[in-house]
TrEMBL record:
GO-annotated cellular components: periplasmic space
Pfam families per the UniProt record, alphabetical: PD40, TolB_N
Domain TolB N-terminal as annotated: residue spans: 9-108
Locations listed in the record: Periplasm
InterPro entries given in the database record: 6-blade_b-propeller_TolB-like (IPR011042), Tol-Pal_TolB (IPR014167), TolB_N (IPR007195), WD40 (IPR011659)
Protein name (Swiss-Prot/TrEMBL): Tol-Pal system protein TolB
Function as written in the Swiss-Prot or TrEMBL entry: Part of the Tol-Pal system, which plays a role in outer membrane invagination during cell division and is important for maintaining outer membrane integrity.
Record GO biological process: cell division; protein import
């Protein structure tokens, strides 16, 4: 059994401006299924900020039904999902669904999956991805994964979980801190910093096998790994030559190449999706601010100007948005800046936000914060209007990183 704090529930708060009303009829057979598929799909869609659920009570349909669309129009649903789940003789489950456009009276197609019991949640996330893409034109992120670290009773655990925080599997446990996990571009590996040898050292860990390799263990501190989009290079912060500076190093290990030369601390590198630019944090101006420079090195350009303390940059996949943490009057708040205009907005009312990471479709952020004195993982839309808590039951939860789209 996983410890209790690895189990999450979703609480959505806030109201978006335009949410698509959708009815998810309970799937035929799901009352005897170990997972309530329609509920998982609805929670996914609501967490995205783009949908709100319409009460389906009193109706029983499945993927082969011809629904009474006038009835659903009366209930103000714009779309409708119906399906079924049944256990096969070999113990696997047959999951089927169909999506209807209620307004236009169109059948928008459906899919079927045959999955082991352990993958029923994944099947529900794939259904949510299908519905999201059909109705918004954007790729859904519900079948992607997140990584995060918990600290509970003196032990640190690196977890890999579904994008809703459920189904967490421990990738590594240690009595010493584990920090800064970051997914490889292909979703197969995690780079992170471990203190198990009593100083910060960078490892790359293969998620499927649990095997790992040491990538950076130089004199001094080895920290803040970031993958280049080609997966062959990591940017890291090393103090091997005195002072914390940025280097690149092959993701298989090897000789680092220095990128910055300053007397200040340069850290927290992150690449843009096209690999051309690295954003990073430096106190070269006297206090931590976010800068950018060509990925091969070169003259840094300052990006953040409001506030005296800005850290933890994350760049959206389309390069439009910078998410970061800004200290505002003693509170640490998640901000989103539109890079073209430089306009930045605080999007939380919490005071201990950390570690923002974009979903691979760029529509949501995951971050950690404190709510009523307890650590929590949250997702938020970029305007801050819709937040969902993926909160654990115990232990400090921190350092989330949202993985890439899964290769089907």
């Amino acid at each position: 059994m996983l410890p209790a704090f690895a189990q999450f529930r979703v609480e959505v708060s806030g109201v978006g401006l335009t949410q698509l009303p959708i009815a998810l009829v309970p799937f035929r057979g799901e009352e005897s299924s170990p997972q309530k598929l329609s509920t998982i799909v609805q929670a996914d869609l609501e967490r995205s900020g783009q949908f709100r659920g319409v009460d389906p009570s009193g109706q029983s349909l499945d993927e082969s039904s011809r629904p009474d669309l006038a009835l659903w129009r009366q209930r103000t649903a714009d779309s409708l999902v119906a399906g079924s789940v049944s256990r096969l003789a070999d113990g696997r489950y047959d999951v089927r669904f169909r999506l209807w456009d209620v307004v236009r009276g169109q059948d928008l197609g459906g899919q079927s999956y045959t999955v082991p019991e352990a993958d029923l949640r994944l099947a529900a996330h794939r259904i949510a991805d299908y519905v999201y893409e059909k109705l918004t034109g954007e790729k859904g992120v519900f079948s992607t994964r997140i990584a995060y670290v918990t600290r509970a009773s003196g032990r640190y655990t690196l977890w890999v979980a579904d994008a809703d925080g459920e189904n967490a599997q421990a990738a590594l446990a240690s009595p010493e801190p584990i920090i800064s996990p970051v997914w490889s571009p292909n979703g197969g590996e995690l780079a992170y910093v471990s203190f198990e040898s009593r100083k910060p050292v960078v490892y790359v860990h293969t998620v499927a096998s649990g095997q790992r390799r040491l990538v950076a263990n130089f004199r001094g501190s080895n920290s803040a790994p970031a993958w280049a989009p080609d997966g062959r290079t990591l940017a890291v912060t090393l103090s091997r030559d005195g002072g914390s500076q940025l280097y690149t190093i092959p993701s298989t290990g090897g000789e680092p190449r220095r990128l910055t030369s300053s007397s200040s601390i340069d850290t927290e590198p992150t690449y843009t999706a096209d690999g051309s630019t690295i954003y990073f944090v430096s106190d070269r101006g006297g206090a931590p601010q976010i800068y950018k420079m060509p990925a091969s090195g070169g003259a840094p350009v300052r990006v953040t100007f409001s506030g005296s303390y800005n850290i933890s940059p994350a760049i959206s996949p389309d390069g439009r948005w910078l998410a970061y943490i800004s200290r505002v009057g003693g509170a640490f708040k998640l901000h989103v800046m539109e890079l073209a205009t430089g306009n930045a907005t605080a999007i939380t009312d919490t005071a201990a936000d950390e570690s923002p990471s974009f979903a691979p479709n760029g529509k949501l952020l995951v971050y950690s914060t404190q709510i009523q004195g307890r650590e929590a993982l949250m997702t938020t839309t970029l305007d801050g209007k819709i937040k969902a808590r993926l909160a654990g039951k115990a232990g400090d939860i921190r350092e989330p990183d949202w993985g890439p789209f899964q290769k089907q």
